[in-house]
Amino acid sequence: MVYLEDKRALINKGITHLLQVKDSDIRLMNLYQCRYAIDNSIHIGGASSATIPMVSLFYGGIIDLNIEQPTALDQDMFVLSKGHAVATLASIYADIGYFDRSVLKNSRSVSSILNGHPGPLLPGVHVATGPMGQGMGVAQGFAIAGQRSPKFDVYTITGDGELQEGPIWETVMYSGFKRLENLCVMVDNNGGQLDIVNTLHFPHNSLKDTFSSFGWRVMEVDATKYHTVYSALLQFKYGERDGRPTAIICKSTKGHGGLSDYMNTHKATIANDILDQEDKLQIQQRAAREKDFFKFFDQLSRAEYASERDTILRHAEKMGFKVEKGKLVIVEVPVKTKKAPVRNKKINYLPEQLPAVEKGKSYAGSKIIELSMKAFAKDERIFSVDSDLASTSGLQAGVGFVDKYRALNAGVAEANMMLLGEAFAILGGNSWVSTFCPFFDWKVMRRIAVGHQERLEVIAEKNGWLSEGHALDLTMVATAADLETQSNGATHMGNDDVMLFNEVAQLKIINVSCPQQLLGVLKWIVEGNKGMIYMRILRSPSNAIYDADFKFEFGKAYHARQSANAKATIVSSGRGVYEALDAAKKLEEQGININVVDMPSIDEAAIIELYRSGKPVFIAEQNNGYLWSHFRKVLFEKEANISTKNLVAVNTTTKGGLHYIHSGTYPELAAHYELNGASLSDRILKTLK
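RESULT FIELD:
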């Protein structure tokens, strides 16, 4: 008599045999990629050791995917955190219908969408990965979203070398704390990395105990065998969960599954004769595995096993096999992925619920954000993440007032904060993150920008898999800009951040001055489809400069003070606008009128107009010269001949050349750098004389 559990075991054994055959097919596709790559190269070591975990996940009936619509929210998610295993991912995605197999040819060429690491250029890939330690944090964000309806599971593969990155452990701590039982992390524990392929630079002493200490459920498996990995995934998918995220430690070796020891490396350029040899042996191994499958399958010919045979056959069909005459024939799946439907990114809110800002009155920027978020967050697409500085942003207080589960605080873990924000933006949310200006992680920001750019490229393509609304709406609220940090010391001063982040492509930088302008920027952002924004706000309260009908436009400057007979203009932003207005008032008392231009975002037309006016222009800013750098850039691009005699830069590098600002009260610092009203008025008066 065959018991029910025995029958389930028979089905699993049949599926395991099928997975082994599919393993051979994927490895052959990987070799094909190498043969026809632009450089005949491939990240073979990590791709090989990740093949058993990935084949088990994608072909074992574990992950629930909507391949036709990869952006639909009612499906499981996958993130390849160890982006070096892109070859295996690409082979699988081509095999199951995300894109055509022709994509596997000519990889890493400028004309190819298949790069050395994955990104949204590839249909079905949500996250650009490659820089270590970041994909897992995005997967964690997906898992947080997946605990709400519609619920879904999230899978990610990381490497043991990648576990040397700090952001990984920010994610591990937070995921355990948040009890993300729908998150499954598969660690490719292959024991090697780039410089040393057969060992790690330093050992991981009991990964199981380490993950467990952070509140994870851990399974250690022999990842050179399919049945052990598959069994662990089945346990995660269908077993009883206890509130803990799951880590499956997949113990293997770098290059496992490759038959030549030439495969036991990180990245290899493989000659055709070695590829021919490897192809031949992999084909022979496939034939042997196919024979093993039918030897087992034929044993189920008795009537009482009819149901098990049918189940195994149906699974074979789902894996892309046609069973005929003792052969598992590969059925090439047509491309299934269709263009994603347009996403409406406009946030719905009641304007009358926004704060009323009266000209001339003082307000804290964080309070404007808090009150605005109480209105915006009634739309479920608003998410916020702070990093132990929520009091300076207003995000957590505002969003949490509506829905505390969408108002997160990552603690002192700025990288993880940014990864969480990226995840919510990928899922279609209007996502906000915040910390002090100098605390944003440039490496993380740059990688997010790469993924955002790839999304924009695909959206612009007629036949791209993404459509309007599928770029990222991610706002980084940077608090304590310019001299606002005051006496906290040079490490906390936000004077060079804007110069550094200016080199991040696709990032819109906005340096807010007054509370009314801040409210205008917030309303502009929630219109949707504004992309990646780095918004610098003042920490201390400030007076509203503009009237209630102020409307913000990106790329536009504003006249904070304008006179028809002005003899000069001060251009500034943020807190510097107030000092410029003070300088203008002091000069007016001496009978000299000057204009004050507030440039929260770069207005190229205004720069040209000011230059061509022939009147002195003082570019005064409480940072290392962000506006001044753009003046130079715009003028060199637009003007045939340039004279700088009427251009005067006053910033934190023009006195003494020190790059970093040290401690002091705001009045001290503004006076020291000659950026207060008195110093600016004296400077202008001397220049005009």
